[in-house]
Amino acid sequence: MHRFRFAFMLLAIVLISGCGGGRLATQDPTIESVAIVSFTVNNYGFFGQGPINQQLINDNINSMLNDTEQILAKRWSIKPVKSFIDNPEYQTLTVANAKRGLSSPIIDNCTMPICSDNRNAIVKGILTTDQAKQLCASLEVDAVLMVYSEWTIDTGKFVPTVKALTKNCFSMYDKNGTRLPYMRKDLRGERVIGGPFAGVHINEGTIDQWVTAYHKSVTALFQR
C-alpha cells in the first residue's frame, strides 16, 4: 500500500510539473528584452474556413497584440512591433503573406508578416537557428516570440451547449538561436453562445469570448 501511495504521489508531481512547465521559459535570467515577431489568429475550420466572420477577428487583433505587449512588459523590456514592422531587414527574414484563414495585425497600413510559409511551422512556432539569431540581432533584443492563437467552438459532451474555444501557443527563441520551452494554454469562453435548438451566435456581442479567453491564457503564462 505504501509503495502504491508513493507511486501515485510521484505520478501526480510529474503531471503537475508537466502542466506548469511552460512557465520555465519566462524565468531565464539572460533574457531582458523581447520582441514579438509573429502574431497570428487562426479561424479554424474545415477546408480552411472557420465559423467566425474574419472581420470580427481583424477588428480585435491589434488590441490583442497591444495587450500582449503590455503583459510581457511586466517581465521584460519589450520592443513594440510598431517600431520595426516596416524594417526592411525584419521583412526579409519573414514571409509577407499569411495563409488562408490566418489573421495578423495591420499597423500603419503594413500587415505584420509571418515567419514561415509552412502552416505546421506557424502553429508550432518553428524558426531556423539562423533565422532566430538574425531576428534577434536585427531587432537588438535578447529573444523573439511567436504567438499563434487558434479560434473555434466547443460543444459540451453531456450538455450540448456551445462555447468559444481558444488554443494559444507561444514559442520563444533566444539570441543564440536556442528554442526555449514551448508554451501552450487552451481556454474556453465563460458564456454559452449556442445550443442544439438555439443555433450558434457569433457576432460583435460574443467575439469577446475568444478575445478574453486569449487574454487569460497570456496572463496565466507570462504575468508575474
What does this structure look like?
This protein has 224 residues and is of the alpha+beta class. The protein has one domain (26-222): 2-Layer Sandwich (Double Stranded RNA Binding Domain), CATH 3.30.160. Helix content is 33%, strand content 25%. It contains six helices and ten strands. The protein has helices at 2-20, 54-72, 88-92, 119-124, 129-139, 208-222, and strands at residues 33-43, 77-78, 102-103, 106-107, 110-111, 143-155, 162-174, 183-188, 194-195, 199-200. Strands 1, 2, 3, 6, 7 and 8 form a six-stranded mixed sheet that branches. β4 (106-107) and β5 form a beta hairpin. α2 (54-72) packs parallel to α6 (208-222). The longest helix is centred in the first third of the chain and has 19 residues, at 2-20. Residues 1-24 have low confidence and may be disordered.
**Global morphology:** globular
Q: List how many beta strands DSSP finds.
A: 10
For the sheet with most strands, the description reads: 6 strands, mixed
Report the CATH topology name. Answer: Double Stranded RNA Binding Domain
